[in-house]
Specification:
This protein has about 130 residues and is of the alpha+beta class. The chain has a four-stranded antiparallel sheet with strand order 1-2-3-4, with helices on one face. The protein has helices at about 25-40, 55-75; strands at about 85-95, 100-105, 110-120, 125-130.
Length: about 130
C-alpha cells in the first residue's frame, strides 16, 4: 500500500491475515466507529461506548456534544430518526503509524461527513482526531 492509496473499501478484500499494526486494519473499523460516534452525539449510545478506541480528547468532545443534544431534546422534544447508513468510506495511509479516513453518514433528510485521524499507539489503533459535520 502506498502513501497515496485511496481505494474504496469493498467487502471482497480480505484483511483476516493482517497484523494488528497494519494500516489496512483501519479500513474495517471506520464505518462502525463513525456510526457509534454519531449515535453518541445523538445521545442514542452511552458516552463511553468508544473509550477504548478514541483518545481522551475525542471522548470529551463526544461527551460535550451529547450533553448539548440532551439539552436541546429537553427543550424542544426533538428526537432524531433512528436509521443511518454509512457510505463513501475512504482511507489514506499517511505513514505506517497514521491513517486518515473519511465517510458519509446518511439519515433521512440529512447527511453528515466524518473525518478521522487514526494513529498506532502502544495499545493499538486509536482515533486521535474526529470531525463531524
Amino acid at each position: 500500500m502506498t502513501t497515496t492509496d485511496q481505494r474504496v473499501v469493498t467487502g471482497g478484500e480480505s484483511t483476516e491475515n493482517l497484523d494488528l499494526d497494519d494500516p489496512r486494519i483501519v479500513e474495517r473499523m471506520v464505518a462502525p466507529v463513525a456510526r457509534r460516534a454519531v449515535e453518541i452525539v445523538r445521545d442514542m449510545r452511552p458516552e463511553n461506548a468508544l473509550d477504548r478506541i478514541v483518545t481522551p480528547d475525542v471522548g470529551k468532545l463526544l461527551s460535550r456534544r451529547a450533553a448539548l443534544t440532551r439539552r436541546l431534546r429537553a427543550t424542544t422534544g426533538y428526537a432524531p430518526p433512528q436509521r443511518m447508513q454509512v457510505s463513501g468510506v475512504r482511507t489514506c495511509v499517511v505513514n505506517e503509524q497514521t491513517v486518515e479516513a473519511s465517510c458519509v453518514l446518511r439519515e433521512p433528510g440529512r447527511a453528515r461527513f466524518l473525518a478521522m485521524r487514526w494513529e498506532l499507539r502502544h495499545s493499538g489503533w486509536r482515533v486521535t482526531v474526529l470531525e463531524i459535520g
